[in-house]
Amino acid sequence: MSSTVRLLAVLAWRNLWRHPGRTGAILFALALGVWSMVSLAGLTRGVLESQLERAIANLTGHVQIHAPGYRDDPVVEHSMPPPGPELRAALATDAVSAWAARVRVPAIVVSERESAAVTLVGIDPAQERGLSFIPDAVVAGRYLESADDAGLLIGRKLAERLETRLGWRVVLMSEGADDELADRGVRIVGVFDAEPEAIETSYVFVGRRAAQQMLRLGERISEIALVAPERNRIQGLLERLRAAAPGLDVRPWTEIEPLLVLTEELSNVVLVIWYLIVFTAMSFGLVNTLLMAVFERTREFGLFQALGMRPQLIVGQVLGESLILIALGLALGNAAATLTLRWLEGGLDLSAFAEGFEMVGYSPVLYPEVAASDVLVANLLVLVLGLIASLYPAWRAARHVPVQALTRT
Amino acid sequence: MEPTVVCRKVSKVYRQDSVAVHALVDVDLVIPRQDFLCLYGPSGSGKTTLLNLIGGLDRPTSGEIIVDGQRIDDMESGALAHLRLHRIGFVFQAYNLIPVLTARENVEFVMQLQGVPAAERRRKALEILAEVGLEGLADRRPAELSGGQQQRVAVARAIVSEPALVLADEPTANLDSKTAENLMQLLVHMNREHGVTFVFSTHDRLVMDFSRRLIGLRDGRIVEDRRREAAA
Question: How confident is the model at residue B161 (pLDDT cuts 50, 70, 90)?
Fold first, then answer.
C-alpha cells in the first residue's frame, strides 16, 4: 500500500470514530438495511423455491412429452405409443434423474352418494419414486404395488367430499379409446394428503396398465414426465429429447407452468424495488452523515490543501470514510441476515395463515433459500450506489479554496 | 542567487456585497534566500493577505508572484499544491494540527504525501520533534498537548522536509511570552542551520525583535522596508 493510501485510510478510519454515536447510528441503519435486503431475498426466494419444487413434484416434472394436441385437449385420443428405443436411450442418460410414463385423462369418480370430476392418472408406482409427490403422500392404506395394481389412491379431501373411505368401492368413468364409455369399479386402497389441497380433489391414481385396460388404450400412454439433476440446465437435454422423439411435443417446465416463471420474474422485480427503497433510505443517512462530517472539518480540508494535498486525495479521503462505513454496514448486515436465515432454517411456521397461503399455492411453512446472486446484487448495489452518493459530500470537501476553508470558523 | 520570493505590482481586491475592498495595492517585494523577515502593521493592513498570496493559498487580482523560481499567480491548482507540498511550509496562528493524528504523525503528514519511505519519515519526525523540545511527546494527539507544544509540532511539520520558504501567520499569538521567545529562538536556529527563508506576519513586538528585516504595511501598501540587527 502506498504511503498516501495508507495515510488516507488512517485519516478515514480515525475520523469516523471522532463521533462514535453518529457513526454507530449510521452503521446500525446501514446494517439494518442490508439485513432487510438479504433476509427478505432469502424468504422470498424460499417461498418461490418451495412453490416451484411443489409444482414440479405435483406431476409437472422438469420436462413433459406428449402427443401433439394433448396439452390443449388432454383426452384419450391424444395418447401416444410408449417410448421407443431411441427415446428410451435418451431417457437413460445421466441428464435424467427419473422418468415415468403415465396415462392421464379426465374422468368422473362416483361414490354411493356423490360424484366428482377428476384427472385419472395411471402410474407405474416404482417409476414415480424420486419424480412426483405421490409415493410419499399416502397417509392411510397403502401405495400402489405395481403398474397392474387396480386399487385406487384417492385424496383425503376428495374422500370426504364423496363421503367414502379406505376399503370402499367407487366407480371410475371416462371416455375409452374406442369413443365408448369406459368404466370400472375400483376399491380405495390408499388415501393421500397433498399441498395444496386442490391436488387432493383433482387427482386419483391407479396402476398404469390397469388404466390402459380400462380405457382400452393397449400400450399407449398420455405422457412421459422426467426430472433432471438441475431444473435450470435442461436445454441440452430438451434438444436431445426432441431429436429422439420427432413429432412429439417436448416441453420444459417453464412452458408447462408459465405462471411460476412469471411469479419468479415478478419477485425479482419486487426485490430490486425493495433494494432501491431501502438503499434510498440508507443513502440519505449516509450522505447526511458525510455532509455533517465534511462541514465540521472544512478548516481541516483547507489545511490539507495548504499542506499540499491535491483535491483528488481529499475526495479520496471522504470516499474512504464512506467505503469503511459501507463495508462495516455490509459486514454487520450480512452477518445479522445469516444468523436470521440460519435461525429460520427449520422453517418459518405461518400455519395461522395457512388457508390464505394455500389459496395462492404457498406452503404454510416457509423455508428461506439464499441465492448467492441475491446477496451479491444487494451488496454490490449498496457498495456502488453508496460510493456514488458519497461523491457529492466528497466534492463539497474538495472544492474550497484553501484560504477560504482555513479562515472559516 | 535567485530570490525565494518576488512580488511585482501585486494587488488583491475582495468584494463584500457590492463594495470593493483593496486588501493589497501594487505591492513590490523581493525576499532573498535565507531571509528572516516580518510583515507588521495594524489589522486589515494586508499582512495575512500577502502571506496567503505568497503561499499560493489565494490568487492575486493582478500582478505577478514568483516563488522559488516559479510563477504562481496563474499556476494550475494541482501544480500549486505540488509546489506547496515540496517547497513551502506553513505555521498558522491557530496551530492547525490534524486532531486525529499524533504529534509524530502530524509531522510525518507532509513527508507521507511526498512519498518518503516510512522508516526515513519516522526517523526525521522523531529527530525534528526532539529538536523542537518535544522528545517523549511524539505519540500524543494535539488535544493532549499545550498551546506552546502544539505550535512546536506545527513548526516541526513546517520545516521537517526542509522547504525553501516557511510562512508563519502570527505564530506567537496564542503563546505566553516565555514560550514565544523559545519558539522564535528555535526558528532563528532553523533559519541559520537549515537555510530556510522565514516570513512572518505579526503584531508581536517579540517577533519583530527577532527579525532581520521589517516590512510595514498599511492599507494594503508597503510603507516601510528596513533591515536591522536581530535580537538573536
Answer: confident
CB atoms B84 and A6 under 8 Å:
no
**A309–B81 C-beta distance less than 8 A:** yes
Per DSSP, A58 falls in state I
Candidate from A11, A303, A401 with C-beta closest to B96: A303
| Phi (first) and psi of residue B37, to 5 degrees | -120, 160
Query: Does a structural domain hold residue A383?
Result: yes
Same domain, A220 and A163: yes
Q: How far apart are CA B108 and CA B121, in angstroms?
A: 6
Q: Does residue A68 sit in the same domain as residue A28? A: no
With a cut of 90, say whether residue A345 has pLDDT above it: no
CATH of B34-58+77-227, one of 3.40.1390.10, 3.40.1000.20, 3.40.50.300, 3.60.10.10: 3.40.50.300
The minimal CB distance from A4 to the residues B82, B99, B113 is found for B113
Residue A237 is assigned to a structural domain of this protein: no
Asked if A307 lies within 8 A of B57 by C-beta distance, the reply is no
For the segment B183-217, what is each residue's pLDDT rounded down to a tens digit?
898 889 889 888 889 999 998 899 999 999 999 99
pTM (2 d.p.): 0.75
In a shared domain, residues A37 and A110 = no
Nearest CA in chain A to B113: A4
Q: Do B96 and A406 touch (CB under 8 A)?
A: yes
Calculate mean pLDDT across residues A55-61.
87
Q: Which of B12, B43, B96, B108 to mutate to test the interface with A (most CBs of A within 10 A)?
A: B96
| Count of domains observed in chain A | 2
Question: A395: distance to nearest CA of chain B, Å?
Answer: 15
Kindly state whether residues A156 and A272 are assigned to the same domain: no
Asked whether residue A240 is domain-assigned, the answer is no
Mark whether A362 and A305 lie in a shared domain: yes
User: What Å distances lie between residue B163 and B67, B105, B133, B204, CA to CA?
Assistant: 12, 18, 20, 25
H or E segment to which residue B225 belongs: strand B221-227
Cross-strand pairs, B167: B90, B199
What integer best gives the mean pLDDT of chain A?
Answer: 89
Q: How far away is chain B from the Cα of A356, in angstroms, using its nearest Cα?
A: 58
A255 found inside a domain: no
Taking CA atoms, B23 is separated from A187, B45, B62, B126, B219, in Å, by: 110, 7, 12, 40, 7
Question: Which residues of chain B have a Cβ shorter than 8 Å from any chain A Cβ?
Answer: 52, 55, 57-58, 77-78, 81-86, 90, 92, 96, 98-101, 105, 109-110, 112-118, 121, 157
Say which of A3, A313, A403 has its CB closest to residue B118.
Answer: A3
Report the C-alpha gap between A363 and A359 in whole angstroms.
10
C-alpha triplet B221, B224, B226: angle, nearest 5°: 140
Domain that holds residue A68: 63-227
Regarding whether A196 and A101 lie in a shared domain, the answer is yes
